[in-house]
Amino acid sequence: MADMIETTEEVLDAVEEVVEEATDEVVTEEAPAEEASAEETAVEAPAADEEEAATEETPAEEESAVEESASDEPESSDEEDEEPEPPRPASPYDLPGDWYVIHSYSGYENKVKANLETRIQSMHMEDRIFEVHIPMEDVVEFKGGKKVTVPKKVFPGYILVRMSLDDDSWYAVRNTPGVTGFVAGNAQKPTPLSRREVERFLGVQEEEEKGKPRFKPEWEVGEQVRVVTGPFADFNGIIEEINIDQQKVVVLVNIFGRDTPVELGFEDIQKN
Question: 258 has which bridge partners?
Fold first, then answer.
């Protein structure tokens, strides 16, 4: 009986050893598997992070592409729509020679001009006396109650001559019939006009300033006129004030023995 018990204990001990060995083998096999699984997870995590980063970079790349395409587009055509400034009118001051002023009898300017031009040709002075000019302007006047645009001399009694001054050219101009002398400076060595004077006298203007005749009333303050229209028709009066901008005058009209200021239009009065 004792022998059987010892045999049984030996068997149990052998079984326990086999079980322990089997358990150690299972643990040993599972550990590498777990490590491999952990490595796979670690590998997959960066891949996922890269995908998220790529996803986040996509909008930024799209915005950058949009900005680049916008920068490649041509700028607004505002600059193209801007019209170039018109060139400044040519100045007569830049022409050959200098401009001088000569004096003539008032009312004879055109005749003196014709005489001088004839004299230039006959004396073969075309290479020294280039141009004879009478400054003119369009003036609006009232005649017979109507507006009339008439040409008027800017400087009655004066003529401009563009020339290279020397003894011969001076003699040709000074001794032209109707010329009484040069203006400004010494009688023998007159002073030419400055650029500012030339451009002002010869009417160098921008295009939009041209074509606007200047209004010049045919009356003066203190002059007697007759009213031709309205309730004061046929009354005489004295001009007290002239307003060119509004084209009106204030006339002192004698009403019941008393001078009364009356505002009238230019078309309402005439010279006596």
Answer: 255
Query: Which backbone phi and psi does 175 adopt, to 5 degrees?
Result: -100, 15
The continuous run of DSSP H or E covering 148 comes out as strand 146-153
Q: What is the CATH number of domain 224-271?
A: 2.30.30.30
Is residue 243 within 8 Å of 255, Cβ to Cβ?
no
Tokens of 230: 């309205």
* Tokens encoding 195: 């650029």
CATH architecture of residue range(s) 92-214: 2-Layer Sandwich (3.30)
Helices (H), the chain: 2-72, 78-81, 109-122, 167-174, 195-201
Q: Name the DSSP class of 222.
A: T
Residues 156-207 have pLDDT tens digits of: 899 999 999 999 999 999 999 999 999 977 778 899 999 998 988 887 654 4
Q: What is the mean pLDDT of the chain?
A: 75
Token digits for 176? 């032209």
Q: Which of 3-7, 155-159, 200-204, 239-243 has the lowest mean pLDDT?
A: 3-7
Beta bridge partners of 136: 153
Cβ-Cβ contacts under 8 Å for 242 (sequence gap 6 or more): 217, 219, 220, 221, 249
The answer for residues whose C-beta is within 8 angstroms of residue 187's C-beta and 6 or more apart is 181
Render pLDDT for 124-136 as a digit per residue (tens, 0 to 9). Answer: 999 999 999 998 8
Distant-in-sequence, close-in-space partners of 20: CB < 8 Å, separation ≥ 6: none
